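Chain A, query sequence.
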Amino acid sequence: MLIDSGGIEVIDARGQTVATPGAVFATWVDARRFATWSPSSQGSTGGSVTVYGLDGSSTGVPGTFRGRGFIGNGVGGLTLMPASAGGPGDSDRFVVWTNGVVGHPMPGWPLGWSNDGSTLIIATSPPLGGTAGSTQSVAIAVMSRPFTAGARPLDGIHVDPSYVPSFDRTGAHVAFPCAAKGDSGTCHQVVIDLPTGRVHDVGRQPPGLPLTWLANGDLLLAATGASGSGALLEWDGSVVVSAVLPHASWALASSSGYIALVTEAADATRTTWIIDPSGASIADLPGMAVSWSDDGSVVAISGDSGRDVTLLSVR
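Chain A, predicted structure.
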């Protein structure tokens, strides 16, 4: 799915356009449906949500909703924040939409789902300025399906809500690109063990670079300094070590074991190398890998202009 100032375009693995809805934001509800958000008027914080099927069907979600907190979980659920919430003197509230049914409003601001849709990370405080080494940060908590019980605070961690948390495949660990313990501090990469609540400070890379989970369950971090080509780092659950991978600026791992390594030259041009599960290089293309398909069979690579995208099938 491609989103730019001209609208939204949904393309398949062959690069063919399958839908072009006019909207501002889009998110996947599941493998066959996606949802869009469009403002009610120019500059409005409230807008309409429509769920589209790849078969051409469409269904409007009754109500008016804010653009933020609009996140699909990929397995049939969608978080929405009613437009009446979050105004002056009003607390943030959200609902979970599941297959046409809207749940009861709950306090918080959705930030990210686990891969199986069973766990939701929410913000529980208004944004605070200048904390976690960022322009804003929020306290966070975790909720579990069926999302009717109260949220469990996550050990006093504050995160920059501009960045999406990354769950491992089991849903037991969640990594935050920019976080700090307490309501002030320097922006670090942090992993929380959800069953125990233990917090691991795993890195100090620029927060705009990807955090990606390897097939062996380790977290892959960018190279120290994150520019040029260096040794990628790997958190193995207890310590950070050098990854046994070719040098790169950063990387994106797929669910199938393929890895896209991105190198950035001094002139800011980027190249993506694809290595297979055995470590062999199978392709290189100009541009930056931006995402893998859920099954790890296709990688999307954005050109340096930011306007062209190449889809590469690896199997």
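The chain has no helices and 32 strands. Residues 173 and 193 are 5 Å apart (CA to CA).
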